[in-house]
Amino acid sequence: MMTDWSQERILVYAPHPDDETLGCGGLMSKAKAAGAEVFVQFITVGDTADQSPKGFSTAEERYAEIKKVADHFRWDDWHMALPGDEYHLRLDAVPRVDIAHIIEASSPLSMSRLRPTVVVAPHRTSYNQDHQAIAEAVHTALRPSDRALRHHPRLALAYEEAADQWRLEPTCSPGLIVELSEKEVGDKIHAMELYGSQCHRHPHTRSELTLRSLAALRGMQAGVAFGEGFHVLRCLA
Fold it and tell me: What is the pTM (predicted TM-score) of this model?
């Protein structure tokens, strides 16, 4: 499938800041260079215990990182839906109908307002409860209906992250590989470096070597140098 990314309005769902880069940083780089519009809907962020020398990162630090990454990728806009510790790492406790309503209608970047042609969201096989919650809510928001009454993106994709494959349930390989250039892989890696509180040395799921290795693996599966893998939820030709 050949896609003219210059004609697309892409809406990416990121449960937390950095998920969009891990899942589709290469695609965002490629699409923006072609002339696409790219928007990122973050769901939540808060103070987080982590494996950094300091042992935690604050929401304020994470917002500063988002702004650097947004400038790097030249996003057209981004929005945080549910900020604060009440929701961060607790999205599985939020009723799915409430999250789906944010996605469908109430957010400034909702599907009904933005009318994206491409939607990219986490895959439901992630071990992370927030990722699962957003994957299921986006799936609900994409439910079949009369296109005259509700907006339907032409292409709906689920992105992968390296650690998603750790779950024990069987998962198939991504059915869509987006070819990436060395520059696009580099843009993805640099964006993760800008997420300084979340970037780690190897071995770690968010290390440079992990990102480059997964890009090389997906590229090999399509007979190219580098790639990014996606599961196709819907494709209207």
Answer: 0.94
* Assigned token pair, 204: 């770690």
Give the number of residues written for the chain.
237
SS3 37: strand
- For residues 153 and 121, is the Cβ–Cβ distance under 8 A? no
Q: Is residue 3 part of a domain?
A: no
Q: Which residues pair with 234 in a beta bridge?
A: 156
Number of structural domains the chain divides into = 1
Write out the residue range of the structural domain in which residue 105 sits: 8-235
Nearest CA-CA partner of 215 in 162, 157, 156: 162
CA dihedral 41→193→187→48, nearest 10 degrees, is -20
Q: What is the tens place of the pLDDT at every residue in 92-147?
A: 999 999 999 999 999 999 999 999 999 999 999 899 999 999 999 999 999 999 99
What are 199-236's pLDDT values in tens digits? 778 888 889 999 999 999 999 999 999 999 999 999 99
Distance from C-alpha of 4 to C-alpha of 126, rounded to nearest angstrom: 29
Assess if residue 2 is contained within a domain.
no
Question: Which residue's structure tokens are 């843009």?
Answer: 187
Give CA–CA dist 59/197, Å, rounded. 11
